[in-house]
Specification:
The chain is of the alpha+beta class. Helix content is about 45%, strand content about 20%.
């Protein structure tokens, strides 16, 4: 195994990421006063609501950083010694996302017990910040934590939860790339010389960021097998 990891998706430039986050911070900071049972013109340093507004804004930005992965998380391919590559959703990224996420319920719990809040608006803000990362990123990331696809000139190997396989390229008669209506690669079907077949469900493995790289690798290395 090699350590070289070509970059296929960069994060935004630091100044762009900071600019986006600052803009969102300013907007959400002034909107967050709605959570508290204090009118905007009654805000002052003594009632501590400014700090509460700051915390709510931090929670919202943490949600954005989890959901908008281009801000923090580059995507790299793990190249293998002797040729080939492994495509895997980065485990460190998921761990960082979980750590960032844990700050969100902690912030809203603190706000709830330390301030007088408008319960309807409070729970709307809390749900907006807490649900999308779980539904769209964390559950999928945890379910696909061990999933990967390895492609080399000699073998194809994959793991998708309970499904897994290790195949010799010489045993493959044909290979088919299955795309969706948007012409995006979704599955790879392998038809073997013994008349058996296996379908690798890329769309279940959280490999979206690698689709183009996988497609290019297949075209350049398995073109003779493609139907």
């Amino acid at each position: 195994m090699g350590k070289k990891k070509p970059l296929i998706r960069r994060t935004y430039l630091p100044e762009v990421s900071i600019g986006i986050l600052l803009l969102m911070f300013v907007i959400s900071y002034f909107l967050s006063h709605q959570i508290f049972e204090v009118k905007l013109h009654d805000l002052d340093e003594d009632n501590g609501v400014y700090f509460g507004m700051f915390l709510v804004t931090v929670a919202l930005l943490n949600m954005v950083m989890i959901m908008w992965e281009d801000l923090l998380f580059p995507v790299r391919i793990k190249e293998l010694e002797g040729g080939g590559a492994t495509f895997r959703n980065h485990r460190t990224k998921l761990k960082v996302q979980i750590l960032i996420y844990l700050t969100i319920p902690a912030i809203f719990t603190f706000i709830y017990f330390e301030y007088e809040v408008n319960h309807v608006r409070f729970f709307i803000w809390a749900l907006i910040c807490m649900l999308p990362p779980i539904v769209d990123k964390l559950i999928s990331g945890i379910n696909n934590y061990n999933d990967y696809l390895t492609l080399t000139e000699k073998i194809i190997e994959y793991k998708n939860n309970a499904k897994e396989g290790h195949f010799i390229v010489q045993d493959i008669q044909h290979m088919a790339i299955i795309k969706d209506e948007r012409k995006v690669i979704q599955k790879i079907r392998l038809d073997f010389k013994d008349n058996s077949s296996v379908t690798i469900d890329l769309d279940e493995m959280e490999l979206d960021a690698f689709y183009h790289a996988i497609f290019k690798y297949i075209l350049s290395h398995y073109e003779h097998l493609l139907k």
